Amino acid sequence: MSEVEGVVQGHRDGHGFLIPDDGQPDLYLSAQEMHAVMHGDRLRARIVRYDKRGRPEGRVLEILDRKKRPIIGRLLLESGVWLVAPEDKRYGQDILVPKNAIANATAGQVVAVELTEPPSLYSQPVGRVTEVLGEIDDPGMEIEIAVRKYEVPHRFSAETLSQAAKLPDRVRAVDMKNRVDLRDVALVTIDGEDARDFDDAVFCTPHKQGRGKTAFKGWRLLVAIADVSHYVKPGEPLDLDAYERATSVYFPRRVIPMLPEKLSNGLCSLNPEQDRLSMVCDMLITEEGETYAYQFYPAVICSHARLTYNEVAAVLANTHGPEAARRKELVPHLLHLHEVYRALLSQRQRRGAVDFDTVETQIVCDDNGRIEKIIPRTRNDAHRLIEEAMLAANVCAADFIAGGKHHSLYRVHEGPTPEKRTALQAYLRALGIGMGLSDDPSPGEYQAIASATKDRPDATQIHTMLLRSMQQAIYTGANAGHFGLAYQAYTHFTSPIRRYPDLLVHRVIKAMLGNKRYQLDAAKMDVPVPPKRPGKAKPINPASASTEVERWEVVGAHCSANERRADEASRDVEAWLKCRYMREHLGEEFSGTVSAVTTFGLFVQLDALFVEGLVHITELGGEYYRFDEVRQELRGERTGIRYATGARVQVQVSRVDLDGRKIDFRLVRDGEELRPASKPLRDKTGQAAPRKPTDQLAEVQRQDREVKASGKRAKAGGSGRSAAAPQSPVAARKTAARKSSEAGKGRKRR
């Protein structure tokens, strides 16, 4: 049997998987094999057998490298023994802590523990407390746990803080040399109410030039982006810390920034009425929404106002309203921005870009960091206006770099793989959607399906399946286009305060404007080897990256991995907050919609709270449900009742697992849209035979619950069985089903 090397990924149930370096299928490790290893360890294993589905199972041969990061968990005292129960259940084992190694922690507190003795086949791991985070109920504790659990860098180095402190408090005259002065242009920032860093400002005015057939008529659109590259130089401490983070991480009520606050909220933030350095993308947009010409140049600007999305939307909706009266001098510019937005939007539709209507939620917290409410985040014309302006600038940046044949990072989003395309086609056919996909689908085909199904009750699930069939967007040095936005070349230029790839793109553009070439420094190669992605070639080892193309690939993989890490940490915190919030609603009933169907149950999103939980398949009644993978539904074999996405249900909050970030519901009442999936039976005359009344199913479910309860009482009453002992739960369930069936037949005969 072959041997493989890789990294262990633990499972909360005790077993684990070895993720091979070469991208081969994951290797299953039994709970016994996991006794001597922990989640994150690097090891070599041998494939010893294959299960009946062809999945490999392995045996650990050698532990190559132990993960040395601290482990976060709760300090517990059980029978006089101190131990730490890891917050990340993938570790699978509690860590013993000697009494003299608990520092100043007390039982129940959240601590960081460092291993002093690794686990073995016959002993638990031993560690010592290195940091006491506080009580589990302390405000913001869930964020402190998440940043350590996902290894998010959250402390700047002393060298970085020292360098940031030496930066000036305002733009100096020497900084403005060789820059276009745009301080008299009415550029404005448009962001959310809670935004603190402003990295983009916009301005638009009608523009005409030329005569006859070559005449241009449209708009001049300026997108000014904070010039972070002026202050963050390659190889300096600021740059090293920014590269390690690669992105800012956003949590409810807190941000882990990529740059120190003096830059992110000060020098590089386009605050109103303050001079700021920027890189400008100056574009001419035709009446059809096409980019006629563009140019990039460094500039100095002064934002004329800090506007919010809701404020701009109110001005556009009513130019004589109170919001417009307060911003009277800016109203004409905002109207021009809206005009160019509509032109860009029409071009987006002609281009066939995919645009799904998805509901995003916003968590509103109190002063203690607990959820007060969860509300839908509505997108208005102001949101879309800024989005289209940023897209236009990003496309110009990608075109400029590609035209200059310079290496850089592109934002690549590829279409469906052949396997995912085939699965999606089968799903659409099963739903009776006549619109299919070609062998080489275009974004327009996706958008046509999305538009045709947007009014269906299962539109959310259809759009989700469309999204899942496409590949994840990544940063890479090789341009392969952006499928979702239907662009031949696309990059990120507009957020250098919070994304490192944007900072690199700024450096490349600046080098090209000066007729130079930007070279990646060697420090960028000092990163871990990224895992292999399914369907992709094995990633380049950073230590062996010798060519410029390979170096950009390494940087792209690093930025993509850290972007995913930030998303996982944010989702973990939101899940914890929602579980904590739902603990206050245990036993309450809510109406909801089935958002997803799996082999083990239904995921239901509550209408009022925008929280998702699981109705396990055991809560659906006393019959066997078969999962239809093509239709994505559960179907009862006896009753024909089906549970599909979009169905309306009534549920009760039955259990909240804070450690596992899980919420369980119990089905209370089926909605009207839950109906038998099979075709109506017909008699010899061709007439539809009457179905069993819907209350019969309820009766079967009631009897099922009684049978379960009687079985539990019988077990509690002792192991002795008398002649009058109750039937076993299985036999009783069969008896109840038979009586119910006979009763139904009797009603038919009558």
Automatic annotation (TrEMBL):
Domain of life: Bacteria
Biased composition (Basic and acidic residues): 674-685, 739-750
Pfam families xref list: CSD2, OB_RNB, RNB, S1
Catalytic activity: Exonucleolytic cleavage in the 3'- to 5'-direction to yield nucleoside 5'-phosphates
Classification via InterPro entries: CSD (IPR011129), CSD2 (IPR040476), NA-bd_OB-fold (IPR012340), RNase_B_OB_dom (IPR013223), RNase_II/R (IPR001900), RNase_II/R_CS (IPR022966), RNase_II/RNase_R (IPR004476), RNase_R (IPR011805)
GO terms for MF: exoribonuclease II activity
Organism of origin: Roseateles flavus
Family in the record: Belongs to the RNR ribonuclease family. RNase R subfamily.
Cell location: Cytoplasm
Keywords: Cytoplasm, Exonuclease, Hydrolase, Nuclease, RNA-binding
EC numbers on record: 3.1.13.1
Name assigned to this protein: Ribonuclease R
PANTHER family for the chain: DIS3-LIKE EXONUCLEASE 2, RIBONUCLEASE
Ranges of residues in domain S1 motif: 587-668
Described purpose of this protein according to its UniProt entry: 3'-5' exoribonuclease that releases 5'-nucleoside monophosphates and is involved in maturation of structured RNAs.
Cited NCBIfam families: 3_prime_RNase (TIGR00358), RNase_R (TIGR02063)
Region (Disordered): 674-750
